[in-house]
Amino acid sequence: MRVFSAGLITETNTFAPWPTGVRGFSEEGPFHGDVTTRGKDSEMGVLACGWRDLCRERGYEFVESLFASAQPSGRAVQSVYETYRDEILRDLKAKGPFDIVLLFLHGAMVSQECDDCEGDILARVREAVGPKVAVGAELDPHCHLTPLMVEKANAIILMKEYPHTDYMERGRELFDICAGMAEGKLKPVSHLFDCRMVGFYPTTTEPMRSLVDKCSAAEQRPKVLSVSFAHGFPWGDTPETGSKMLVIADGDAALAEAVSTEIGKEIYAARDALLPRFPRIEEALGAARETNGCAVLADTADNAGGGAPSDNVALLRAMLEQRVQDAVFGCIWDPVGVKTCAEAGVGATLPLRIGGKCGPASGEPFDVVATVKAFRVDHDQQGLGPARSHMGDSVWIEINGIDVVLNSTRTQTFSPDAFTGLGIDLKNKRMIAVKSSWHFQALFGPIADRIIPVATPGAIQMDFAAIDYRRKRDQHFFPREKNPLGL
Ligand SMILES: [Zn+2]
Fold first, then answer.
1. What is the pLDDT along the chain (487 residues), one digit of tens a residue?
2. Which among 299, 304, 326, 440 would be 20 to 30 A from 217, CA to CA?
3. Looking at the structure, do residues 391 and 451 belong to the same domain, yes or no?
4. pTM value > 0.90
5. Are residues 289 and 262 located together in one domain of the fold?
6. Could you tell me the distance, in angstroms and rounded to a whole number, from the CA of residue 230 to the centre of ligand 1?
7. For residue 479, is it within any domain?
8. Ligand 1 centre and the CA of 384: distance in Å?
9. Is residue 15 part of a domain?
10. Same domain, 120 and 267
11. Which of these three, 246, 274, 302, is where a domain ends?
């Protein structure tokens, strides 16, 4: 058996102002056939190494092509998208024939001229390899799972967990289904159920936790190969934006339809309880102050992981106005601020304008007097799973008793070592405020006495009914309508 693998990953916030281009894809890679060596610490590398090891165990030949990933922002530059897509297709044809194609894609990549980049890639891959080759893709649950993707792939598997801690397990399941098909033991058939919802579904809290467990339990039923819930990505305006349920069954289309409809309707039935209800800043700071121990607050709307600028300082401003002490805030994407502090040097106290630089979603800039406590070239933090996440040159500054981190490579704050790696001691902090919507919970959860996601201002608003969709086909979705499925 010969296995081809490739990856092209970004999540497009179509409301974000700046494009995703070569620079975005150059912050980590791209890797042209060498992600399992040169990029093995990245998420893409971790998954590709897993597929390579599975191939070795089975005596399959493993071939790797392009693996490229960019931090979410606006629509991908068309020529950049096409260049990467065509590199994958060129390798697929030149190095073939293959029995199995494994792709690591996001599912919410939108380019300047294509609303469904992953559907486009899968259609072209299918055209290149013909109908008999097993084509599988692992996607992020924040995808626009389109009928075109499902039609062109034999198997699509989404991460079940948010935070996405399970991408390795899902990658193994995808490998097993595709290998089963290539060896003639499985006939994967898929069905997609449209829940007609737009939402945000962390899996660490109820009712989503139990619903994810139901998906896993359904996979134990005879002939059910995989059950995936596509959360959808609310901040990408495409014809297929929304939440969907995907089930793969072994040779039984009716079973795939029955199970996807059953669990899709269960999620739909919980739709009111699933709506995020986060406190506003004042209320959140009040709750944090009352916490016995350490409260971790999330600046949910300014999460770089969802395409937001990561330089809105509204929450920090409120913390300073309330004279909060024993607190830390980060990480604000401010390369100019980092350069200014580096120039002044560690120990310097200087007037500094931070945040508010990218556009209306960044809010107002903030003029402060800051003391430079530490500077680190090429700072990084733990990402999801064993992967590292690059932060670029970063600086620890102190403003009226609050420790603040500014970074140069835009990324959400995943891990305490984003702070401790610069020398900040988190042990006696009463408040830790992070720019992330939910992924931070995987690594900050263990040190938090209370976690408070805050309804902050920014580019990732949770009022889904009010999002100004122009391209979304179904405008009659929950929560804009109470019961769009009429159940
Ligand atoms: Zn995601």
1. 999 999 999 999 998 878 999 999 999 899 999 999 999 999 999 999 999 999 999 999 999 999 999 999 999 999 999 999 999 999 999 999 999 999 999 999 999 999 999 999 999 999 999 999 999 999 999 999 999 999 999 999 999 999 999 999 999 999 999 999 999 999 999 999 999 999 999 999 999 999 999 999 999 999 999 999 999 999 999 999 999 999 999 999 999 999 999 999 999 999 999 999 999 999 999 999 999 999 999 999 999 999 999 999 999 999 999 999 999 999 999 999 999 999 999 999 999 999 999 988 899 999 999 999 999 999 999 998 888 999 999 999 999 999 999 999 999 999 999 999 999 999 999 999 999 999 999 999 999 999 999 999 998 989 999 999 999 999 999 999 999 999 9
2. 440
3. yes
4. yes
5. no
6. 10
7. no
8. 11
9. yes
10. yes
11. 274
Report the alpha-carbon distance of residue 363 to residue 375 in Å, rounded.
26
Structural domain range at position 316: 281-461
How many domains, in total, are found in the chain?
2
Is the domain of 50 the same as that of 193?
yes
- Give distance in angstroms: CA of 419 to centre of ligand 1: 23
- CB-based contacts of 143, cutoff 8 Å, min separation 6: 106, 107, 108, 118, 158, 230, 231, 232, 233
Question: Could you tell me the distance, in angstroms and rounded to a whole number, from the CA of residue 43 to the centre of ligand 1?
Answer: 13
Strands 431-434 and 31-32 turn out to be: unpaired
Q: Ligand 1: distance of its center to the CA of 349 in Å? A: 39
**What CATH number does the domain containing 100 carry?**
3.40.50.2300
C-alpha 265 – ligand 1 centre gap (Å): 22
Going along 300-387, which residue ranges are E strands? Answer: 327-333, 349-354, 366-382
Q: Which residue has the tokens 């102190």?
A: 398
Structure tokens at 476: 């009659």
| Cα–ligand 1 centroid distance for 72 (angstroms) | 10
Q: Which residues pair with 295 in a beta bridge?
A: 431, 450
Q: Is residue 471 part of a domain?
A: no
With respect to residue 161, please indicate whether it lies within any of the assigned structural domains. Answer: yes
The domain boundary, picked from 274, 302, 326, lies at: 274
On whether both 250 and 289 belong to a single domain, the answer is no
